[in-house]
Design a protein that fits this description.
Two copies of one chain form a homodimer.
Chain A: H1 3-13, H2 16-21, E1 64-72, H3 77-95, E2 129-134, H4 136-141, E3 172-178, H5 181-194, E4 199-210, H6 239-245, E5 261-270, H7 272-276, H8 280-287, H9 324-327, E6 339-340, E7 343-349, E8 355-365, H10 372-382, E9 389-399, H11 411-415
Antiparallel strand pairs in A: 1-3, 1-4, 2-3, 4-7, 5-8, 5-9, 6-8, 7-8
Helix pairs in contact in A: 3-5
């Protein structure tokens, strides 16, 4: 039995009690046992599951995403509560590298189906985070429309949208992020199993290669246009800005959302083949940054502030008026900022042999109506990048705050109304 | 500029000459410059591009796959030769962490489209391998049917097959494997670009989570049924068995294939939801191994030989007659062995909300007609696993041998016929 095999086994079979009793802040395998140093184990990190805010939002972005939107197949509130409580328990265990339940993959009663599907046995926690949100329809279906935040409403149509209804919307979302896709897919698959009879998958999306890093500790990664994406993103290290732009504050809406946020997902198909034929000059003019260092046009360093007033000898703005970074900037947006946390995707090729690929855009905002909606209206109407992209999926969810010890997802929302 | 940024830059801008002049066996960044120790850089490894055999076959399996089958859109042999020569040059550079061409992503003439799409800038080589094969139709379309090996023929229909023609077959395949999906996708995308006008993508497949390790140095990974997959696989450390079962030997067929092999790809949809409802006993009886350690039923260790003659007190075989490992074993197969190198896949959910997931099975064999075909016939008709899987895609390709210094893919095949 190799070291990598023995680890999860130890956690699963002898460490389970300690893990359940432990508080959220578990660093690596430091559960009071002698375990390898997680700093030397790629993927060995455990992200704290409980806290003021849900994990997977300002957590340094992992490399892999599996995102699922589900619809309620039962509108019995008790069944939904039971499922959410089971999800919470299973997700908390999985973020520690454990099976969904003790002896989950290998039940002692061999004539029962395993509770855990088993494909993540032996794999380290891989910084798994599981983040849950509720769509506008969740409240209608459960008859609790009065509990829906005013900030949570269907997004309007934007110019150029070509949304596929079957890949948009949803009553509940699960965002699983990890540094190993097997771990992220395993998490969602097992939560979906737990929810059988209460929810069914509406659509799902696999993503890879984080864009828009959420921590100053992470270098900015590149999207499929080959450009650094998210240089000016909000960062975990900016708590005041996060309170201003991301976290729902007391008084914003219903109490159950305080400390929560809203997740907006947009599946953005990139017209890769068209982009790849564009000259470097055109590509940089569309983005507003250089392709090499990612510096704003006219600047020399990635994190140098863009000078939107700079003009060349012909009086032409150095950063074009319809460039993406200019239009998306807080300067153009009356101070609006959003926390982006998107991933690249590639889903093979379409029937013309073109790459079915792009950006699965995810952002977190305090109020979609006053942040994402005006930003996307401006971009959809003016962004030079619009010639190279099409939005094909869209969804919005209210993400409750982080969980206290013993609390389950949605408890404050659902139990106050009993 | 961070250390991770500077590395590829150094390689791309100052190291290109050294890299092009170097012989294949490049370990990490040891190109005569002062570079970080690749052993301390996750993903920093360079896999030798040239050699007796193509890389990506007995190379220890990477974690991520991007596989593409292409059709010829031009049947001019000169155009195909030119493309294959350009592919070879670009692939050799990319396996070293370089752009497809010098200044590829950032052309000095800014009014031209970049030769390299740029999204892998700054990323380490990530053990990228690129493996190329030719389908049966390749020979017909180029008018060189006389050069086609007799071993390369369309696979017959197998019981239970539900093949999608648009996701089967192809004139040429590119298998890109790496430990970072961005690196694997980048490689294929850029080769497809180079081939524009000569080839077009027919279908593509993203895979993750290696199954069937190809080296004794790798622990056996699990497939989406939660079982260790490929315990009895052929291994890189067994050269005599590889010569017997994988590598085409002199006299087997046309000289240009000596040292080559055949790639069989099968897209196997797993009926995850059905499987997940099966009791542990049933699951283990289907596979013939325990789910925990992966030992053969009745045994205690993963690599213990299966005892197919063992019966229990009732006279029932301990390893069922229709179990997967019994039917696929060399004992059942008159000594046939194959080198498996498959990956898990998940492509969201189908219109019933079921996971569209499974195993993208890839194997390499000396002769598909005498190895894969009889094995799959036996399995398709008898394997207990057939209740839980459906083959939805199929393709076969002849992979030429490894490349000598200066040689391009297919050169021995195409130039001898001039």
């Amino acid at each position: 039995m190799s070291a990598s095999i023995s680890r999860r086994r130890l956690l699963g079979w002898t460490g389970a009690g300690a893990a359940v009793a432990g508080v959220g802040a578990v660093s690596g395998y430091a559960l009071g046992r002698t375990e390898p140093d997680p700093a030397q184990e790629p993927g060995g990190d455990v992200v704290e599951f409980r806290g003021t805010h849900q994990a997977g939002i300002v957590t340094p972005s992992q490399n892999e995403l599996y995102f699922t939107a589900l619809d309620l197949t039962s509108t019995g509130k008790a069944a939904v509560q039971r499922m959410l409580a089971q999800w919470t328990s299973a997700a908390e265990r999985m973020t520690r590298g454990l099976e969904t339940a003790e002896n989950g993959a290998l039940p002692l009663d061999r004539e029962t189906a395993p509770a855990d599907t088993g494909e993540a046995l032996e794999l380290p926690p891989s910084s798994l985070t599981v983040t849950v949100g509720f769509g506008p329809t969740f409240f209608d279906k459960l008859g609790i429309t009065d509990r829906r935040p005013a900030t949570l409403a269907d997004l309007p149509s934007f110019q150029g949208d070509r949304l596929e209804p079957a890949k948009s919307g949803g009553d509940i979302c699960i965002q699983a992020c990890a540094n190993d896709p097997q771990v992220a897919v395993h998490a969602v698959r097992n939560l979906v199993r737990i929810g059988f009879g209460t929810v069914a998958v509406r659509w799902a999306q696999l993503g890879y290669g984080r864009t828009s890093s959420t921590s100053i500790r992470q270098p900015t990664a590149r999207n499929l246009f080959g450009f650094k994406d998210g240089t000016n993103n909000l960062k975990a290290e900016e708590p005041d800005l996060l309170d201003q732009h991301v976290w729902v504050q007391g008084g914003d809406g219903p109490d159950w959302m305080t400390g929560g946020t809203h997740l907006v997902a947009r599946r953005i198909r990139m017209h890769i083949e068209t982009w790849d034929r564009a000259p470097l000059d055109e590509q940089e003019a569309v983005i507003g940054r250089t392709k090499g260092t990612g510096s704003p046009l006219g600047g020399t360093g990635e994190f140098e502030p863009a000078n939107y007033r700079s003009i060349d000898a012909n009086g032409t703005p150095v950063i074009p008026l319809n460039s993406h970074i200019r239009l998306a900037s807080a300067e153009s947006m009356n101070g609006i900022k959003i926390l982006r946390r998107g991933f690249n995707f590639v889903a093979g090729s379409d029937d013309r042999g073109h790459l079915n690929a792009g950006l699965f855009f995810v952002c977190f905002v305090r109020n979609p109506q006053t942040q994402f909606v005006p930003m996307q209206r401006l971009l959809a109407a003016n962004d030079a990048m619009s010639d190279y992209i099409t939005h094909t999926g869209s969804a919005v969810f209210a993400c409750p705050p982080g969980l206290r010890e013993g609390e389950y997802w949605g408890q404050r929302l659902l139990e106050d109304t009993v």
